[in-house]
From TrEMBL:
Pfam families: ABC2_membrane_4. This is ABC transporter permease. PANTHER family: INTEGRAL MEMBRANE PROTEIN-RELATED, MEMBRANE PROTEIN. The keyword Transmembrane helix applies. It comes from the Bacteria. The chain crosses the membrane at residues 20-42, 62-82, 110-134, 154-172, 179-203, 223-243. Keywords: Membrane, Transmembrane, Transmembrane helix.
Amino acid sequence: MNMLTALWAESLKVRRSRIIWISLMAATLLPILFGLVMAGLISSKPALEGQEANMQAYLNQLGVAVSVGGIIGFGFLYSWIFGREYSDRTVKDLLALPVPRFQVVLSKMFVAALWCAALAAWLFAVGCATGWLVSLDGWSGGVIADSLPRYAETTIMVICLSLPIGWIASAGRGYMAALGFVVLMVIAANLGGAIGIESYMPWAVPGLLNGAAGEDKMNLEAVSLALPYVTGAVGIAGTIAWWRYADQT
């Protein structure tokens, strides 16, 4: 059994689960809802508070949605793909397979990352289609192309910030500790903003990059921009170490 086989096995688990359809539905409905509100079709206001009703503002809101909501949503997906092995009591069967444990970890992380990236891409695509259908001002290929790099960077950052969730789910032997950690990090990011250290809180960086705290805080230092990637590297190393050295009995 090699790495490709492990990847196939993990992807098969995802494809057969109901959660993939739930996450896809959420990634479809969210941009549609934002678009309808931005166009003033389901709200008395023509746009989200503090934003102009145009395509650029709408795409900025999608970036904020991924940077904030993605921490919760992607964190849930990572907690599921790791925690289910303990909740379903299949971890011993998994460890008995003739495959190195680090390959098991990497295959889970890769499948989860691909899943999250696909959801983010779908959300952006639905958002672009929604903006065209509701005739938002400024809709153009140029605006979409200009927004795409930051959106992609935000998605990668949030995926990196979700990598430690696999470690927490493994150490906690289930979903609950990992989900609690996700909530704790969201609270910590908000508290960091309250005391003025949000640029040094990894989980706050994607939101800052997309203007969630105002345009004056969007220009981040290199140290701040590196924090999500460092957090992801620590998450990978910690999860591999746990699966390799911890007592799984």
